[in-house]
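The methods section describes the discrete structure representation at length, but only in general terms. What matters is that the chain and its backbone geometry are given together, residue for residue. For illustration, here is how one protein appears when written out as sequence plus structure tokens:
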Amino acid sequence: GSQLFNQFEYEEAEGYIESAISLSPDFYIARYRLAQIYYATSRRDLAQAEINAIPDDADLDTRAKRYISAFDLYLSGEAEKAIEIYQSILSDFPYEIEAQQRLSQAYCDSYQEDLAIKTLQTLQLQGPDHAHVLCALGYQLTSVRRVEEARIILSVYVAEHPDVPNPGDLYGALDISSAR
């Protein structure tokens, strides 16, 4: 399921993860991943319900609990508190891609676009062809009207991931942004 999620195959990933949860309702990391899918597909209420289904005393390691706690805060509209937790994860695990991605998202939602972009640019250095990073960086650069930088990132995204649907939407947003 996680591999399909990383390929933007949300519907198929959701099916696999739901199957895993039906076989093992205490598979809390699967619930966390399912919540991410719900969030990515604009079903925030379902995402929050899935996170709420994970008990505070779940048998998870500290890092997993921190991720879940941060995502719960993020979903609850407390991006600043989520940022603190993602930063603490990164202080212990500096190359954690997921923490950096989630941190950039929380920065964006707390109107700290420059920090969001800087975090994504750092991530791109670690994995220059990572689809989610290129997509998010292209979006962030477009949202702050850094049009030429966004075009470069989106051209890399399209070249590296020609089969994903997102570049067309991002190019459309870029065209609208550059027309302003």
User: Anything to note?
Assistant: The chain has a mean pLDDT of 86.
